[in-house]
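Regression test attached.
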Amino acid sequence: MKRHLISAADLTRDDAVLILDTAEEMARFADRPIKKLPTLRGRTIVNLFFEDSTRTRISFEAAAKRLSADVINFSAKGSSVSKGESLKDTALTLEAMGADAVVIRHGDSGAPHRLATSGWIGGSVVNAGDGTHEHPTQALLDAFTMRRRLVGAEGAGLDGRRITIVGDILHSRVARSNVHLLSTLGAHVTLVAPPTLLPIGVESWPCEVSYDLDAVLAKSDAVMMLRVQRERMNAAFFPTEREYARRYGLDGERMARMPERSIVMHPGPMNRGMEITAEVADSPRCTAVEQVANGVSIRMAVMYLLLGGAEPARPAPAPEGGAASRPHAGGSRTKEDH
Amino acid sequence: MTEPDDKTLIRGARLLGGEPQDVLLADGTVQEIGRGIEAPGAEVVEAQGGILLPGLVDLHTHLREPGREDSETVLTGTRAAAKGGYTAVHAMANTFPVADTAGVVEQVWRLGKEYGYCDVRPVGAVTVGLEGKQLAELGAMHDSAAGVRVFSDDGKCVDDAVIMRRALEYVKAFDGVVAQHAQEPRLTEGAQMNEGTVSAELGLAGWPAVAEESIIARDVLLAAHVGSRVHICHLSTAGSVEIVRWAKSKGWNVTAEVTPHHLLLTDEMVRSYNPVYKVNPPLRTEADVMALREALADGTIDCVATDHAPHPHEDKDCEWGAAAMGMVGLETALSVVQHTMVETGLLDWAQVADRMSHRPAAIGRLEGHGRPVAHGEPANLVLVDAAYRGQVDPAGFASRSANTPYEGRELPGRVTHTWLRGRATVVDGVLR
């Protein structure tokens, strides 16, 4: 593992598989009466959220707490400019407080990259979603969910699996991270959207593109429905909500044409009646709730690996190249802390 | 400080890159050019094979005064200009208050005259407050002591076709020119960088080439229709080059400028998310850079203009989305042109003089600048050590701002001397 997690594009296959396998081990603790591991005791993790996202924030918070880290939630609603304090000054404040890792959610693409490379802080940076750029832990939890449902083996990737991502690709950090990660793991990715919601330049991505949902459903092992904001129609990305739902929404009839063991995914929050009908959202094929649970395991794995788990506190970062040690399922790591 | 009537003898200078000769300056003019000139009592400058060019003229400089003196002032900006080899700059109108009245343009002009580092020709706003709605008093600005000839809402596009048409027509009365910042506003709402494969990956809102090209296409047609001349600011795409080339082939009175940074840098730099690369129009692709170089070489693009845009440190030391757009350029422009155009064989030094001095002065109808280096001409000159190689160090800038994309980059050439009407403003690379 590298010192930061900024982009799914930075992960090698070995890195990604290590995170997924580590998350499997973390998940095993979730089934125990006492879910807490002592591995990050004495470490401080800051959740720095410039955008509201209760779901993502509590997922990171739960993950850090299960690893016994001290968690500070820093909610800086609105942009750094409107708030009057710069990202830099916020970062310097967190640095002075001794943050070992900063989990950042920011409305500007590239803000986590700036935080990690500007020299403002010494700890690890985890991107919890930046603008319309990336959301790497979401892609990891999606891959984790797919591997469990479609492959069922640790140590494996997603080789040959056909994944379809549907919706507002243009504004989606989830789609960008997933395209990178899923292709790294060997999956075939197809993006489906009206042409207005695909970025100019998408042809250089490691995936295929289609405007026709019905044409790809029958050959999809997983269909990931992205949230589409209703306000987009005001900017003429599509004519009406109803037309969008008719052409690109997933309903029961369309789901019936998917292969038998295929799954429906959604990163949430869902717009029922827009990109997904209630029938599909509540069906056993839909993994939306499972994804939330898996999110905690993935974020535990990421923080464990980035902070070196058993290794001494800062300044020593996790070793490069995926050599970080994995936790033992026995959970007897107390003596190695501090 | 040298008095205007003092003499300066430049020994062994290569005029426009030619064979070494001596040049004698006296009374603010070039008095003699030849070999073995003797001038007792004259201050002697050993050029040692340096290239002697007419003083550079910038059509596009943001001096920031009045209003943003934290980033630049007329004094610091003209000192930076002198260090970069400029003897005249056109100061853009997007100040606070906007240079849309005779009072503001005269203030800027007067400050430049007082400091004496470089002639300052204010650019007048086309519309009141740069708002694109009502014509500013263009005639009053022209008639003022500042003698405004170039009008621009730079920073904003005059996007209303009727306002643009009227402005083009109106300034014909006093041989003015409208310099258009070509940016279709609706296509560039929230735009952060060039729209293409890199923006798709970085998740930054795209600034498509068509937003520039569609305005240029409209404006060259408008200029042709009303028989006016139009100047295109900071042309940045291969498509824009094609449109200007087509307009010129029709014989229409269209001129265009390119910035040094668009001749060198591409949107690949944005992958660093370092706001020092954030600029408007944005850095484009390698293919655009090559098309711009070719167009500057063949004359489709008339001149190099810096779009020197100083910003305080905090406006760049932040996340990309919060950062200001723009780069300083006066002190690196000639080096970038040497690197991208001369050392690639696309331009010789005489053509550099044409693109950086003669043509911009002609477009701005600026007298006394952009003249040949010849007997009796104003002694506005720059001496360049073209053999020099060094890393760009913003700590040494005369500009109040340091937002250069070239920090640490090795660039060729160095201005050793600049003369404004015979008086040295820079000697051995140091400001007088």
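Expected vs. actual: identical. Chain A touches chain B through 31 residues (CB under 8 Å).
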